[in-house]
Write a structure and sequence with these properties.
Layout: H1 4-14, E1 18-21, H2 29-38, E2 43-47, H3 54-63, E3 66-71, H4 87-106, E4 111-114, H5 123-139, E5 143-147, H6 157-167, E6 172-177, H7 178-183, H8 188-195, E7 199-204, H9 224-236, E8 243-245, H10 254-285
Parallel strand pairs: 1-2, 1-8, 2-3, 3-4, 4-5, 5-6, 6-7, 7-8
Helix pairs in contact: 2-3, 4-5, 8-9
Amino acid sequence: MTDWPVNKFLYITMTMFPSACMWTYRIPINDALREIKETAYHYVDVETDLLDTPAAIECLKSLGLKIGCVALDHKLPPGSSMDGKDAGATRNAIAFIKKVLEKSQALGVQATYVAPCKDRKDLKAFASAMTELAEDAAGRGIRFCVEHVPGRALPSAKEALAFVEGVSHPNMYLLLDVGHTLLSKEKAWEIAAAAGKRIGYVQLSDNDGRSDRHWPLLEGRLTLEALTKILEALKQVGYEGTLGMELKHDRASLCSVFSRNHNLILRLQATAEIKSLKEPETRRKQ
């Protein structure tokens, strides 16, 4: 008797599924959603304006797509800011994001994130706003993440992780952006191991090490060995979220780029899982 059905079930439940970042598309959102569905994606990452577009929400539901993550501050309304320089602008931003969190809860969203403020001197005010938002998100069962962004107050993953751990709110997490670690010259798999359960979301893209170009995976500085180490590290720490595919391409069809990278991520995970299933048998023969 084979134990394959049990192992197959375990593999399915442990898979980190790719989620297509819809803001990289430049065609009407409903057309983009249909394209993504055709590439076998089950999840998409979206900006806040989609949550206010009934036709897009209906299209999303009709296609059976789920939202993996919402970028909370990609499209803040005029008169709002997360930099903390103006108290009124900060309150406007917090109020706006709380409404987005409410809409996200209704759609079953599991993770959300914001980018850091621009200046280090504003980190204290930024931390206060993030704590309030993390608490609101906690009440809705949504992970609240802070991204590391080169050129901003938290330019590296190491610094963003230290910020998250320093704030010490149980619902504040690190968004690990692999493309950004290529710019900050960090090893993403080491960050994943150090962060452990503090990783709330992951984004994948490639670049030339100089600019955040959001190239398809393995077309820049990201190597197959490094990508494999990243996936293995995420498995080791028990990461159970989706993997945001933040991809662009100037030459090839974006639909084909998403499809190719979707298949790459699942294939690497399947290969690693099959290898782990074979290892006990190999050891018994030694």
